[in-house]
């Protein structure tokens, strides 16, 4: 990270205190500009940022039901936080294997406080809604005065696939959340962007959820660094992910999902049991110092397992053929373990 001397360029800024300071202000203004929104607010966690956004939308609409995908992070990975801690209730729509579309959203008949779209949808192999489909969902929401929220945890990463400026993508929604510790490589944190009055309304929820940190300086300066260093490279990461997917699809016993990645990440399916694959991967990490994949998941197909592939600077340093050969070796070892 950082410049030629290894230092982060914003380290000399005064520390922020309780969300106020030059570095955090610079980060919020930078993100608001990139996303084409009037205001942005730093949060330490996306879980808190998105609950705050949806609560603010619910307060304005006087409704409590939020439509979202059943495999979205809010619905699947937060221990039911939003329904345990707030009056909001979730209306899951769409199939497990892909994002929902406008027609499936239109089948929801109950009054909605908001619609949340995770873009891309990690648990469905990092697939995103295409530009036309996003426009249709946005149009449906606006015709009915239903706020649209974008869960953009990986919005930076999917922008090259959509082929539109970040501000155009964010402009389809009323609010958008973006993360700093995934493709941007920051230590953590995120911002929520949207209209000034709504973003101001989320400040109180940030405090209520314990998110008004005494200082977030390490998170803020690494986020600023990530925007400068990694955001301009998202196109290169996407192109490499597409080329890597082609190389891996050529290995017998491997499948890539989706066939053409929508961002810098995709799902890799292995014709080997999850427990055996995990054992081989951990042995590879310990013996050779190569971290090929993290979580290994079972699939509905008996004997097959899945991992995630994410392309960043470290991946760019690997030859595509070498990665394919390594995966073939790991697969063979897992099959015979």
TrEMBL record:
What keywords are assigned to this protein?
A: Pyridoxal phosphate
A Pfam family recorded for this sequence:
Beta_elim_lyase
Required co-factor(s) are:
pyridoxal 5'-phosphate
Question: Which biological processes are named by the entry's GO terms?
Answer: glycine biosynthetic process; L-threonine catabolic process
Report the domain of life of the source organism.
Bacteria
Supply one GO CC term from the record. cytosol
Where's the Aromatic amino acid beta-eliminating lyase/threonine aldolase domain?
16-258
GO terms of molecular function:
L-allo-threonine aldolase activity
Membership in a protein family? Belongs to the threonine aldolase family.
**What is the protein name for this chain?**
Threonine aldolase
This protein's species is Aerophototrophica crusticola
């Amino acid at each position: 990270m950082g410049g030629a001397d290894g230092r982060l360029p914003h380290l000399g800024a005064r520390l922020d205190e309780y969300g106020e300071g030059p570095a955090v202000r610079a980060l919020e203004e930078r993100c608001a500009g990139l996303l084409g929104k009037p205001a942005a607010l730093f949060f330490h966690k996306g879980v808190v940022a998105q609950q705050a956004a949806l609560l603010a939308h619910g307060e304005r609409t006087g409704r409590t039901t939020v439509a979202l995908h059943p495999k979205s992070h809010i619905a699947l990975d937060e221990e039911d936080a939003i329904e345990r801690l707030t009056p909001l209730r979730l209306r899951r729509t769409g199939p497990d294997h892909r994002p929902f579309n406008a027609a499936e959203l239109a089948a929801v008949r109950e009054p909605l406080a908001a619609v949340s779209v995770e873009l891309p949808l990690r648990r469905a192999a990092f697939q995103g809604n295409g530009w036309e489909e996003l426009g249709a969902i946005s149009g449906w929401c606006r015709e009915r005065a239903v706020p649209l929220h974008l869960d953009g945890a990986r919005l930076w990463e999917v922008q090259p696939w959509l082929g539109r400026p970040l501000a155009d993508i964010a402009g389809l929604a009323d609010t958008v959340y973006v993360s700093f510790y995934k493709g941007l490589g920051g230590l953590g944190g995120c911002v929520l962007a949207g209209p000034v009055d709504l973003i101001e309304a989320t400040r109180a929820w940030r405090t209520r959820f314990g998110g008004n940190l005494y200082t977030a300086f390490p998170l803020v300066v690494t986020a600023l660094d990530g925007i400068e260093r990694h955001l301009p490279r998202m196109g290169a990461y996407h192109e490499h992910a597409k080329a890597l997917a082609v190389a891996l699809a050529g290995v017998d016993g491997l499948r890539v999902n989706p066939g053409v990645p929508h961002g810098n990440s995709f799902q890799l399916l292995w014709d080997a049991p999850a427990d055996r694959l995990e054992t081989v991967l951990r042995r590879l990490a310990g013996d050779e110092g190569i971290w090929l994949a993290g979580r290994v998941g079972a699939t509905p197909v008996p004997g097959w397992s899945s991992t995630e592939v994410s392309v960043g600077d470290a991946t760019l340093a690997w030859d595509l053929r070498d990665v394919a050969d390594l995966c073939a070796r790991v697969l063979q070892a897992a099959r015979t373990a």
